[in-house]
Amino acid sequence: MFTGIVEELGEITAVENLGDASRFRLRGPVVTEGAQHGDSIAVNGVCLTVVEHEGDEFTADVMQETLKRSSLGALGVGSRVNLERPTAVGSRLGGHIVQGHVDGTGQVLSRTPSEHWEIVKVSLPADLARYVVEKGSITVDGISLTVVEAGPDHFTVSLIPTTLDLTTLGLKQPGDPVNLEVDIVAKYVERLLANTPGAGR
Q1: Exposed, middle or buried by CB within 10 Å (0-12, 13-18, 19+), for 77?
Q2: What pLDDT sits at residue 163?
Q3: Helix, strand, coil: what percent of the chain each, to 5?
Q4: Pairing of strands 40-43, 80-84
Q5: 169 CB burial (10 A radius; 0-12, 13-18, 19+)
Q6: pLDDT tens by residue, 175-189
Q7: Where are the alpha helices (DSSP H) in the chain?
Q8: 3-state DSSP call for residue 5?
Q9: Fewer Cβ neighbours under 10 Å: the N or C end of the chain?
């Protein structure tokens, strides 16, 4: 489990095509400290498993299904990525509960700067819109954010300078894809209500 609080802005240093998968090599001095084979690291919100670790770099295999359902397939050598290690038991939950299981992708539609923050508008797949509410939580490229406006096919988030400086959202431009993970609590509530007789009445 993750919290959506990005630890560092890493970089993809190599991509190897494995046919039905890809092997990424990524640089991240913070998240590789003490990393071991089999550990989990969220890369732009996608939970990946460490295959190898050497110095400040690690490799992770990304299967075809993940490449198709997330924005990782659009990345290449030199791409910057958000990195986060799993939260430790007993530590503070600074963001919200994030599984690292991407529900879909959106696109940055617009950026509106102001004096102290920036409003970013992101497209929202129709099948995810029901899980997104104003002032609720959403994960964008692994970043825990608060929804400002929730529309039928989009949402907006307000980004402070720290988020712009330390994550990929400071680099994304209109048209760029982003990974989306909606609040897991909303999905569980929907499932429970669907299986409760008379709940929809």
Answers
A1: exposed
A2: 93
A3: 20, 40, 40
A4: antiparallel
A5: buried
A6: 999 999 998 888 888
A7: 64-69, 161-166, 184-194
A8: coil
A9: C
| Chain Cα centroid distance, residue 96 | 12
Number of Cβ within 10 Å of residue 67's Cβ equals: 17
Radius of gyration of the chain (CA): 17
Residue in this structure with the two tokens 């290690």, named with its chain if needed: 85
What whole-number distance in Å separates Cα of residue 68 and Cα of residue 49?
18
Kindly report the length of the chain: 201
Residue 172: both structure tokens together: 């994304």
Q: For strand 154-159 and strand 21-27, is the pairing parallel, antiparallel, or unpaired? A: unpaired
Residues 30-52 have pLDDT tens digits of 999 989 999 999 999 999 999 99
CA distance 72 to 81: 9
- pLDDT higher than threshold 90 for residue 194: no
Give the pLDDT mean for 164-182.
95
Q: Is 91 helix (H, G, I), strand (E, B) or coil?
A: coil
- Contact between 123 and 106 (Cβ < 8 Å): yes
Q: Which two structure tokens, joined as six digits, stand for 6?
A: 């990005």
The two three-digit tokens of residue 175, written as one number:
């048209």
119/158 Cα distance (integer angstroms): 5
Match 């039905």 to its residue by tokens.
20
